[in-house]
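PROTEIN DESIGN WORKSHEET
SECTION A - STRUCTURE
LENGTH: 218
TOKENS:
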């Protein structure tokens, strides 16, 4: 099959169309990274800090969370098999166990779980597994104190928000109870520094970002 496809490709006028496709792809990438809302601007500020703080071959496992919805189209990846997301399945709680599995499968690569507070609570107990195995996973926890996507849609449609503003625990205290390291940065520089430090540890680190942090507005 491979030789047949190579023969067919050799017959196609590749130069012109491929260049047009490359330009179109570049335009789409640029447009996808243009924030449409103030919230997406905050997401992008944190995501760019993450990108700059991790190696090119790092593995990011993203949860069902608003910050991940932005990352799905805007997070820059330089190679395949470096960004994982349960497309269309609404699998809240996916990020942490996926990052654990990725780190076990590829121990020489950095592994990051990108999650929201709601999704994190689905599988937070897996922090114990990561500590037991001594995995240097970074859990980047975006905290908006609720099920933000559902809450926002209910509000937009004039539906009274019900069951979308749960009482959250102290996430950092919870992480420390499992034996993790923790951080709550107050600047972009601080976020990058905490991520780089976390990658040098032999324990998971939970880094919490509050959505309403003033430093996310630049």
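SECTION B - SEQUENCE
RESIDUE ASSIGNMENT:
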């Amino acid at each position: 099959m491979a030789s047949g496809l190579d023969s067919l490709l050799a017959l196609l006028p590749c130069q012109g169309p491929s260049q047009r496709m490359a330009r179109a792809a570049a335009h789409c990438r640029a447009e996808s990274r243009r924030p449409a809302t103030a919230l997406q601007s905050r997401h992008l500020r944190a995501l760019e800090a993450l990108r700059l703080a991790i190696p090119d071959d790092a593995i990011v496992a993203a949860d069902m969370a608003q910050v991940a919805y932005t990352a799905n189209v805007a997070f820059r990846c330089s190679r395949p098999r470096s960004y994982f997301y349960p497309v269309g399945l609404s699998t809240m709680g996916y990020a942490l166990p996926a990052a654990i599995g990725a780190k076990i499968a590829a121990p020489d690569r950095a592994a990051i779980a990108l999650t929201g507070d709601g999704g994190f609570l689905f599988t937070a107990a897996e922090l114990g597994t990561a500590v037991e195995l001594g995995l240097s996973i970074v859990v980047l926890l975006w905290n908006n104190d609720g099920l933000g996507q559902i809450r926002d849609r209910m509000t937009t449609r004039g539906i009274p928000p019900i069951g979308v503003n749960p009482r959250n625990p102290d996430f950092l205290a919870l992480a420390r109870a499992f034996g993790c390291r923790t951080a709550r940065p107050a600047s972009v520089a601080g976020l990058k520094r905490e991520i780089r430090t976390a990658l040098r540890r032999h324990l998971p680190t939970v880094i919490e970002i509050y959505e309403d942090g003033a430093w996310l507005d630049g």
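SECTION C - NOTES
The CA atoms of residues 17 and 23 lie 10 Å apart.
The two ends are 52 Å apart (CA to CA).
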